[in-house]
Design a protein that fits this description.
Bound molecules: iron/sulfur cluster
Low-confidence stretches of chain B: none
Mean pLDDT of chain A: 93
Low-confidence stretches of chain A: none
Distance between the termini of chain A: 89 Å
Radius of gyration of chain A: 30 Å
Strand content of chain A: under 5%
Shape of chain B: globular
Shape of chain A: elongated
Strand order of the largest sheet of chain B: 11-10-9-12-8-1-6-7-13
Number of strands of chain B: 13
Number of domains of chain A: 3
Mean pLDDT of chain B: 92
Number of strands of chain A: 8
Oligomer: heterodimer
Number of helices of chain B: 7
Distance between the termini of chain B: 56 Å
Largest sheet of chain A: 5 strands, parallel
Strand content of chain B: 25-35%
Chain lengths: 660, 266
């Protein structure tokens, strides 16, 4: 076998050019990423490597959406398996007839390769059908040309590959290659080329061979240009993903930070910038976003693509300006790229994060921009500002509340820590259940249950402050940290270690965010506490409630903290087994509209989120919608009033108290 | 433009009515552990001052009479954007009446600066006497406009938009002047920027005692008015419920009308 130098060198030169283009673009993107803030620290390497196997190779999250998941799995695994054919091609370029050592002649490999050529084509067909025929709304804001171009290129690569294999079989007169037995597809295709003259066959083979190679090289240069960059970025993005609790926002060092929040693209954390390059524009986030679904401007996919486009547009100039120290003229991140409305429509429900196959973190980015608006510019919708002012002045966001923090407890004989000393459990009531007339009933019901079960508990009463959840999600990190520090000091002063709360927002903040400031407590949500009391037989039900029930998962209990079972256990204990699920439940639950501090916002654009959610509940035909969050409860009450819906929202504690 | 804003720190006026307590001896509200805030309209006055400063340049000084805790209110004013702050504090001052306070404020202002404009809230959100501003103007011999919401500087004078029951007046005043401020949508107090909050902690607050203002301990009484506070009480609200009987709706309606006439409601 002689060496085909001209062909070999031609392939090497072309590859060199394509690689150079690819690397130049990648270096540019790397420099843009370096603009971001924060340092790189990698912990828990084992877990992270495992994630790569599970989520990249195993596609676990991608497959959560079956149709698009399966088609993607075909294409992705097709590329892995068919990498062998690319290696093969480089060998062939120099040595005609070369094959991979050891495995090159294996009929099993050839069979797998043929199988995946077929599956990749099936995948492409499914993708085309989805985009061109089904047209789900989630693709509305994505660039269709980029998608079609890539699908075309993949088809081209497969055709080139299959064609060159089939013609190679047709050409080999004597001594058929060893792999032939497995190559079912190529063999079948070879039949078509039977009648070709040898020279013609040769020409066609060469055409397919080069088509395959050239498209691959073009593809390489195209990767950095669009969403297909995720082929590369998905690896670091999943490897470096946030492993801290989902519900904990990234803390901000108020003393050291150059900018309080993000007003310019280079002020984002570098990982947030990487997220935008890992976004494959699948639109799953947008499809599940309650704000987007109710006709608002917020679009979590556009959150990523717009940051990326903006960064690519201004990145070079920002780098140059850093060196020269000169200011540059550019579109403003808040204002031109994102409107303030866009940023104030997010309920921080994490539906997007739950679905994102790239593990992107949408909420951190939005809150970072809110931080800038609130702390650097003092700008926010009026009602949000009012809630912040109230939090600052009186430690709760309910300006004009008609009750004091302890009014709900009057005459119930409840211990207060300051007066009666700490008890086994601190009952953290939270502002909603203390000040909202409707939600007070939840606090009362819970206290009654605890008294019946003989649990030793006490409340902080007037010394309780808002945990700071709304302040933090409204972007006022300073106010949040003040409140957190004050609460931690109070809790530590009384030596409190165990906290029970009826509010998932308090639960999340106490449990996941206070450790950022040295406050480490055992925190339990009342759904978990009640489920345990029932399990241990510490509560005797007088009579089961004969009600048909459905359950609304609070975002900060469910998606942010992974607790879906406990509240359902309580409901099942109550009402036999008549718990009907809404179509969007558990991980896919649809927010009530109150999270992210938006309980205090006026919802002026589009349909109200709580009305939409009330319709979901209505579809189940249940008489009672159980919830486990005072804010969800109030949102449902409002929707029921507005829509005259025939069901009643109740907290699980209220339902349980009724049955005792 | 040199602007002085007079502020008062009060118990959060938003506390529920059931939490409101009076001390029968001093006839004052018991502070308890309630939040202390800048009186509502004083914050609007500060906002108007800050907006003027942004437009015109100049300096804003916040002045208050109060206890040590009132430094909190001044810090807030500094965080919002005031340039300097003055606390006038001496135990007897806490007992002084409105005229006495206005006279003390006047002395302090004269001692500190020669302002172009002095702003006060149109009324305090605790006692609502609405009188300190006008007294202060009187004492300083300056023109006074009450219930202003917006101030436009014009040719060395100011034009004040003053709210009245069915609209507004535009009042021109020569400077220096005293204006008491009511709220409208243009003077909602700003949320302080976090950097300013942090910077405000480091700004000095001038402390003045009565002696600094040349007030002898005994002479404060002479500065006060002749008003004697006799008594204060929390109004008792009573609600009674009465059922109107009747076999038919018509009969019920008829009896309801009769009863309402009896009660002289209609
Ligand atoms: S957190 Fe919820 S509201 Fe916010 S972008 Fe994601 S899905 Fe939309
Ligand atoms: S952010 Fe994630 S879910 Fe949203 S479009 Fe990008 S990859 Fe898809």
């Amino acid at each position: 076998m002689g060496i085909d130098w001209p062909r070999g060198i031609a392939v090497l030169v072309l590859t060199g050019v394509a690689t150079a283009i690819f690397l130049r673009e990648m270096a540019r993107i790397y420099r843009f990423l370096r603009l971001g803030q924060g340092s790189l620290r990698v912990d828990r390497v084992g877990k992270r490597l495992l994630d790569l196997i599970v989520y990249v190779l195993g596609h676990v999250k991608v497959l959560a959406w079956t149709y698009s998941g399966v088609l993607h799995l075909f294409i992705f695994w097709g590329f892995l398996v068919l990498l062998t054919t690319i290696l093969q091609q480089y060998g062939e370029a120099f040595v005609p007839g070369w094959s991979l050592p050891w495995i090159g002649n294996s009929p099993v490999l050839a069979g797998l390769q043929d199988l995946f050529i077929l599956l990749v084509l099936v995948g492409v067909g499914m993708a085309l059908y989805l985009r061109a025929v089904v047209r789900p709304p989630r693709f509305r804001s994505s660039n269709p040309l980029d998608a079609y171009l890539i699908l075309g290129l993949i088809t081209g690569i497969m055709v080139g590959l299959a064609g060159s294999r089939a013609t190679a079989i047709a050409l080999s007169k004597e001594a058929p290659p060893g792999w032939l037995a497995g190559a079912f597809l190529s063999r079948a295709l070879a039949v078509w080329f039977k009648g070709f003259s040898p020279s013609m066959l040769h020409l066609v083979h060469e055409l397919f061979w080069w088509l395959h190679l050239l498209i691959i090289l073009f593809f390489l240069t195209w990767i950095p240009e669009g969403k297909h960059l995720h082929l590369i970025t998905i690896f670091p993005n999943i490897f470096l993903r946030k492993l801290t609790p989902r519900g904990a926002l990234r803390p901000l060092d108020l003393e050291k930070a150059e900018s309080l929040g993000v007003g310019k693209v280079e002020q984002f954390h570098w990982k947030d910038l990487l997220d935008t390059f890992a976004c494959m524009e699948c639109g799953r986030c947008t499809a599940v976003c309650p704000a987007n679904a109710t006709g608002k401007e917020l679009d979590p996919r556009r959150l990523h693509t717009a940051i990326r486009h903006h960064l690519v547009e201004v990145g070079e100039r920002v780098i140059a300006a850093r060196e020269s120290g000169q200011a540059i003229d550019r579109p403003s991140l808040i204002g031109d790229v994102f409107s303030e409305d866009f940023l104030w429509q997010c309920v921080t429900c994490a539906a997007c994060i739950q679905e994102c196959p790239a593990f992107n973190e949408h909420i951190d980015k939005i809150v970072d921009m809110r931080r800038y608006l609130v702390m650097e510019e003092s700008r926010a919708p009026d009602t949000i500002l009012e809630a912040l002012r109230s939090l600052e002045a009186r430690g709760h966001p309910f300006k004009g509340a008609l009750a004091s923090r302890t009014d709900w407890a009057k005459g119930m004989g409840i211990k207060e820590v300051a007066r009666d000393g700490p008890a086994e459990w601190l009952f953290w009531v939270g502002c909603a259940a203390a000040f909202d007339e409707r939600a007070q009933k939840v606090a009362q019901a819970m206290a009654r249950i605890l008294q019946i079960a003989g649990v030793d508990f006490a409340i902080l009463g007037g010394e309780e402050r808002c945990t700071g959840d709304p302040a933090r999600r409204m972007g006022h990190e300073y106010l949040f940290q003040m409140l957190a520090q004050e609460n931690i000091a109070t809790l530590e002063r009384y030596g409190i270690t165990r906290i029970l709360t009826i509010c998932p927002h308090c639960y999340n903040t106490l449990k996941n965010e206070y450790p950022q400031f040295g406050g480490n407590f055992q925190v339990v949500h009342h759904s978990q506490f009640l489920a345990a009391l029932l399990r241990e037989g510490r509560l005797q039900l007088r009579q089961p409630l004969n009600l048909s029930l459905t359950f609304h998962d609070p975002c900060y209990l469910g998606r942010h903290n992974g607790e879906y079972e406990a509240p359902r256990q309580v409901l099942r204990a109550l009402g036999g087994n008549r718990v009907v699920e809404m179509e969007r439940c558990r991980e896919r639950a649809f927010c009530c509209g109150a999270g992210g501090g938006l309980f205090w916002a006026e919802e002026r654009v589009g349909k109200r989120i709580n009305h939409e959610r009330a319709e979901h509940a209505l579809e189940t035909g249940a008489e009672v919608v159980g919830t486990a969050c005072p804010y969800c409860l109030v949102m449902f009450e409002d929707a029921v009033k507005a829509k005259e819906a025939p069901f009643r929202p109740r907290d699980i504690a209220e339902l349980l108290a009724d049955a005792l | 433009m040199e602007i002085v804003v007079c502020l008062k720190q009060i118990v959060d006026p938003e506390i529920p009515a059931s939490e409101f307590r009076l001390d029968p001896v001093t006839k004052r509200q018991i502070r308890g552990s309630h939040a202390l805030v800048i009186s509502t309209y004083d914050e609007n006055a500060l906002e108007v001052a800050l907006q003027l400063k942004e437009k015109q340049g100049g300096k804003v000084t916040a002045v208050t009479i109060g206890e040590e805790q009132a430094t909190e209110a001044l810090r807030k004013a500094l965080a919002m954007g005031a340039d300097s702050a003055v606390l006038i504090s001496d135990p007897p001052l806490l007992e002084a009446d409105d005229l006495g306070k206005a006279r003390v404020l006047a002395r302090a202002i004269r001692k500190l600066t020669t302002p172009d404009l002095i702003l006060c809230g149109c009324e305090s959100a605790d006692w609502v006497s609405r009188i300190v501003g006008p007294f202060l103007a009187e004492e300083l011999g300056l023109p006074c406009v009450t219930f202003g919401t917006r101030i436009e500087p014009r040719d060395g004078k100011i034009v004040v938009r003053r709210i009245v029951e069915d609209g507004y007046h535009l009042v021109e005043a020569a400077l220096p002047a005293v204006v008491t401020i009511a709220s409208d949508e243009t003077n909602t107090p700003r949320l302080p920027k976090v950097r300013d909050i942090m910077a405000a902690v480091k700004k000095p607050i001038t402390l003045l005692r009565m002696a600094d203002l040349g007030i002898e301990p005994g002479s404060l009484k002479e500065m006060e008015g002749r008003i004697v506070l006799q008594d204060v009480a929390i109004p008792v609200r009573e609600a009674r419920c009465e059922f109107i009987e009747g076999d038919t709706p018509e009969e019920q309606a008829e009896r309801l009308v009769l009863r309402l006439k009896e009660l002289k409601v209609i």
